[in-house]
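Project outcomes to date are best conveyed with an example. Our students and postdoctoral researchers have been running inverse folding experiments weekly, and each run begins with a structure described purely in tokens. The record below, which covers 308 residues, was selected by the lab manager from last quarter's runs and is presented without edits.
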């Protein structure tokens, strides 16, 4: 009898070891600390680890952000990446920041919108985007989505990056520098409320930089993936509501990723949005109906999930 029990224990141990050996780690590219992408990636990883099964383990990876993530996915450095709709379209087409290097990527599903926070301290003399000329501006990390917006906005105002003094900092560091007076303005393309902006708001009153209506219309007409979003004053304890530019975010994966794995990951995320929203304020803004209108084609595994 002892031998039978011992044999059963050994067999069970080998079964556990075999299952662990089959578990595969999937990495999700997020962004720098202080923005919305890293906690979004943490939340997604938690849901996948809890619900995806099939030996799927996921971990969030700190990256330079939405511009870099499609490249990391295409290069096999990560298996999933968070990016914005406009950048996903550019990556697949080999345009914009990815000029001449088209990538074989597919969409897994929609995420929250990111909005362009252009923030100054309340007493600043900077009122509109044009007033950034000659100023010290924290523009986010070099590979982040803020630079994509800036490159499309500056020419509309007859400016270039040479007309400002840019500091390429993480969003957290950039807004800390704003609070300390080391930069005149801080920019962040992030979901809202953004942790970096909240932290700066706790140190002193802030204000959003405005844009003239004709300039805003020109930017929107030249960039169809952009939209406007209204940020209520109480989000960051500002005196006025603000209208800001933004874009829908999304998850991208390699086009040749296993369809069953993609479907399992999609189900783990989108079947549990209530749980996700309870832990992450940005997750409350995810509308899975947007899956039918993303900037690039859905992966077949994701399409199978959303068709149910």
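After processing, the design step wrote out the following sequence:
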């Amino acid at each position: 009898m002892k031998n039978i029990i011992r044999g059963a224990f050994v067999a069970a141990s080998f079964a556990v070891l075999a299952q662990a050996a089959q578990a595969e780690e999937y990495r999700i590219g997020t962004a720098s600390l202080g923005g919305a992408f890293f906690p979004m990636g943490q939340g997604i990883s938690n849901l996948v680890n809890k619900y995806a099964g099939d030996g799927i383990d996921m971990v969030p990876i700190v990256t330079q952000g939405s511009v870099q993530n499609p490249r990391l996915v295409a290069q096999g450095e990560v298996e999933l990446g968070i990016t914005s709709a406009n950048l996903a379209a550019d990556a697949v087409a080999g345009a914009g920041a990815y000029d001449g290097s088209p990538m074989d990527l597919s969409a897994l599903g929609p995420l929250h919108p990111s909005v362009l926070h252009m923030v100054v301290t309340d007493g600043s003399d900077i009122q509109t985007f044009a007033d950034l000329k000659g100023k010290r501006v924290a523009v986010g990390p070099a590979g982040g989505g803020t630079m994509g917006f800036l490159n499309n906005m500056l020419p509309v105002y007859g400016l270039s990056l040479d007309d400002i003094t840019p500091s390429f900092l993480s969003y957290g560091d950039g807004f800390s520098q704003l609070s300390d007076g080391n930069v005149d303005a801080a920019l962040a393309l992030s979901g809202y409320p953004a942790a970096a902006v909240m932290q700066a708001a706790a140190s002193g009153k802030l204000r959003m930089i405005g844009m003239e209506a004709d300039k805003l219309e020109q930017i929107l007409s030249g960039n169809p993936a952009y939209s406007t979003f209204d940020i209520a004053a109480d989000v960051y304890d500002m005196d006025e509501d603000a209208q800001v530019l933004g874009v829908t975010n999304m998850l991208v994966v390699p086009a040749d990723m296993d369809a069953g794995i993609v479907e399992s990951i999609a189900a783990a995320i989108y079947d549990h949005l209530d749980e996700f929203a309870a832990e992450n304020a940005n997750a409350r803004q995810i509308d899975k109906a947007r899956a039918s209108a993303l900037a690039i084609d859905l992966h077949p595994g994701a399409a199978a999930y959303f068709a149910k």
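Confidence is low (pLDDT under 50) at residues 2-21. The first strand starts at residue 24 and ends at 29. The training component of this project remains on track.
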